[in-house]
Amino acid sequence: MSDQPAQQIKKPFLYVVVCAAGIAGDVGRLITAAQDANWEVGVVATPQGLGFLDAPAVEEQTGYPIRSAWRLPGDPRPLPPADAIAVAPATFNTINKWAAGISDTLALGILCEAHGFGIPTAVLPYLNSAQAAHPAYARSLEQLREMGVLIGSYEPHQPKAGGGADRFRWEAALELLTPKVPLAG
Ligand SMILES: Cc1cc2nc3c(=O)[nH]c(=O)nc-3n(C[C@H](O)[C@H](O)[C@H](O)COP(=O)(O)O)c2cc1C
Question: Please, which domain of life does this record's source organism belong to (predicted)?
Fold first, then answer.
């Protein structure tokens, strides 16, 4: 029998980017599914998205602070580097800004750089059909697809009809990302 200590297997680290959509408060479902599938998870919220979350509950569940603002120069990095990123839920606003290369929130800064770093990224849009009808939206999805971003298949809900939470599949993010991450699965 070897007297070497058992090698620690590194778990893949998933960033869940949470935007300000009505369903964001249920992100614990994705965190649980990811942890059950052997991921470590850290949450990055847009500044608007923060208000849609139960921050203490999310931090308790992940064991990491939620990131939303840039750190100061010299401050330590609060999260390990990402092996993969799930943007869930993704708003109309963040999808269009990300595709256009706008980086005015920490979440967008991380997403815009993820392409250059080659970090596998999946986006689960959650928006209504009036938002989706804007011509910028189809163009943004096409741009993200060209960048290699994996896109969930949520069919936009009717405006002012209470949303489509029952049809939103959080676990789709893991189904899209797992084949792309050697440490996962
Ligand atoms: C209660 C409420 C629910 C919202 N739900 C959505 C939504 O499901 N999808 C969406 O794209 N925007 C939604 N919005 C609008 C976004 O919050 C708004 O566009 C915001 O600027 C998005 O910020 P972010 O992309 O930085 O998270 C909602 C706003 C409110 C007040």
Answer: Bacteria
Residue 98 beta carbon below 6 angstroms from any ligand 1 atom: no
Cβ of residue 96 lying under 6 Å from some atom of ligand 1: no
Q: Check if 49 has its Cβ closer than 6 Å to any atom of ligand 1.
A: yes
Q: Which residue lies with its CA nearest to atom 7 of ligand 1?
A: 21
Distances (CA, A) of 36 to 27, 64, 91, 128, 155: 14, 17, 26, 31, 27
pLDDT tens per residue across span 19-44: 999 999 999 999 999 999 999 999 99
- What pLDDT sits at residue 2? 45
C-beta 20 within 6 A of ligand 1: yes
Helix (H, G, I), strand (E, B) or coil at 158: coil
